[in-house]
Amino acid sequence: MNATVIDEALDTLAANRLRWARLPLPTKIFILNDVRRRVGDVASDWVRASADAKHIPIDSPHVGEEWTSGPYAVASAAAAFAQTLRRIEAGEPVLSGISTRVLPNGRAAVRVFPTTLEDRVLLSGHTADVWMQPGVTEEEIERRAASFYRQPEPRGAVAVVLGAGNIAAIPALDVLTELFVHGSTVALKFNPVNAYLGPFFEHLFGTLIQGGFVRLVYGDADTGAYLTRHPGVDRIHVTGATRTHDAIVYGTGEDAAVRKAADDPVITASITSELGGVGPTIVVGGRWSEADLKHQAEHLVTQKLHNHGFNCVACQVLVLPAEWDQADDLLDAVRAVVPKLAWRGAYYPGVEDRHRAALTDHPDAEILTDGDSPVTLITSLDPAVQDEACFTTEFFGAVLGVVRLPGADPAEYLDNAVSFANERLAGNLGVNLIVHPATAAQHAEALARAIDSLRYGTVAVNSWVGVAFAMTRATWGGFPGSPRNDIGSGNGIVHNALMLEGVERTVVRGPFAPFPRTLRQRVLHVEPLPPYYVTNPNAAIIGRLASERAVTGSFAPVPALLIAALRA
Fold it and tell me: Which residues contact 558 (CB under 8 A, 6 or more apart)?
């Protein structure tokens, strides 16, 4: 750690924070468009470097994940932020063209997806609504949005972003959020796991770095501690684990536990965080066809094995109805899918220890793959066991546990599953619900009650919460209200290109069966797959074309993108 270099970086950011806060909107829009263009300059090399770092063969369909959770996510976010700023500059409502409504539960909501052509092409049949917190009226949404830009004389701030080590876009999106939602200049510290991204970020943030508005910092935990305790820092945002948040806020010495109990922080800056947790998927019973079982098995495997399980919202606990006579059929379908996946390495540090711990606690666990990146299935979880590690510890790897809960009918089961997810599982970042349309219609009231009652920052119905991450107008973060010394999955939200305030959650809905299943099965004898599925053979092609569209805004890639999506 070079303290002098860090001091100089923070001094530069402090010297320029007022200039950044008051920079004319046309200039900020120019910078966002510049970031978008620069993503295109480095996209191919960026993806190749990410694939190499994650031990993914460059010709593997898994490379698609590096396109969509890298260049595509950053370019589309820059475009979305620029659109919001153009509306503010023109004196238009931030939510111009965006629908709002009051839900049956009385909550005000904003329809944030779909809003563009590529939304409808990439995720056909998906919608996303941002729910506001109780008491925020539909009329207040617009008045509260983009509050930074309503200040007569904004002062700005200096922010430190401690970047995530798993998904390439996370650090960049967090920087964009601090810059354009909160008006802060930003020091981004890379996680050592993905510090290889530095040269690409140096380029895509080149104009911001030249202007003294962004600085990039490299180093270990000592560097992070120095940054977060620096008197020149006003704001901190961290993506990581709860223990990382607590170490920042309360320190790591002998008195850390005492400080935490008393909520006596060692930092003076405010802090927001996204901290992951134990992600559940709740499956509601019903009468499923063989095609349903196969498709949803691929869906579940995707929720577990996207980025080989190194995701803060990877499914860790699969919740099944104890009385559902097709539960074992679904698990058999999962067992059949996993060995067919293209090979990839288990790159994230500590995964071997976490996997070994899971096997020690559950010696009857099934190993579904061979080699150095095993996928493990634990089907013996007992919901009555209070200290079950699968419920309390995020494994951050390819371990999937299964728990079966009682319920005389889907309504009773849903009530039990919601209580289990809310009360027994660590964290509150995201939860998935999978329910057949016929069951959803028959038990509509119970399903609505379940969605209302789940205390998670993102709820996905027949989709994966990770999809919301790529929806730049959606919000991303833990369920609000956790106290600082019992932080759950964090506080505050990121992404949020509409700059909404008073947000409670994002609710994503997708189709139980992909369109057009019947036509595709009859004519081509294949099942159409969403682009984010780990089983999609065209994922790399789709990711590259979607990134090109996000960078350029051109319609030229759209026909090939549509063909690749339909052929999946």
Answer: 117, 118, 121, 549
The tally of CA atoms less than 13 A away on the side-chain side of residue 451 is 26
Which token pair is 420?
């289990």
User: SS3 for 94?
Assistant: coil
Strand pairing class (100-102; 458-461): unpaired
Q: How many CA atoms lie within 13 A of 528 on its CB side?
A: 24
Res 516: pLDDT: 56
Instruction: Tell me which residue has tokens 């617009």.
Output: 142
Neighbours of 166 (CB within 10 A): 23
Strand, helix or coil at 356?
helix
Give the list of residues 6+ apart from residue 11 with CB closer than 8 angstroms, or none: 232
CB 414 within 8 A of CB 260: no
- Pairing assessment for the beta strands 458-461 and 503-509 based on DSSP bridges: parallel
Residues of the chain with pLDDT under 50: 518-525
Domains in the chain, please, with CATH? 3-99+151-274 (3.40.605.10), 279-498 (3.40.309.10)
Contacts with 433 (C-beta within 8 Å, 6 or more apart), sequence order: 281, 282, 284, 447, 450, 451, 459, 460, 461, 462
Q: Coil, strand, or helix at residue 350? A: coil
d(C-alpha 340, C-alpha 55), whole Å: 18
Interior/surface letters 359-383, b for 16+ CB within 10 angstroms, e for the rest = eeebeebbebeeeebbbbbbbebeb
Q: Please state whether beta strands 430-434 and 458-461 pair in parallel, antiparallel, or not at all (unpaired).
A: parallel
3-state secondary structure 296-344: HHHHHHHHHHHHHHCCCCCEEEEEEECCCCCHHHHHHHHHHHHHHCCCC
Q: Quote the crossing angle between the two packed helices 539-552 and 25-53, to the nearest 10°.
A: 160
Alpha carbons 518 and 209: distance in angstroms, whole number: 52
- Identify the CA nearest to 157 among candidates 5, 32, 22: 22
Question: CA 192, 197, 199, 203: dihedral to nearest 10 degrees?
Answer: -130
DSSP state of 191: P
Copy the structure tokens of residue 430.
């995201």
Phi-psi label, residue 530: left if phi above 0, alpha if psi -120 to 50, beta otherwise: beta
Listed residue (301, 309, 296, 280) closest to 454, CA to CA: 280
pLDDT in tens, 338-393: 999 998 889 999 999 999 999 999 999 999 987 777 999 999 899 999 999 999 99
CA 212 to chain centre: 29
Tell me what pLDDT residue 373 has.
75
How many secondary structure helices (H) and strands (E) does the chain include? Answer: 23, 18
The owner of tokens 């922010």 is: 159
For tokens 């009773």, name the residue: 412
CA gap 419, 416 in Å, rounded: 5
Alpha-carbon distance 542 to 36, whole Å? Answer: 19
Task: Give the model's pLDDT for residue 525.
Answer: 46
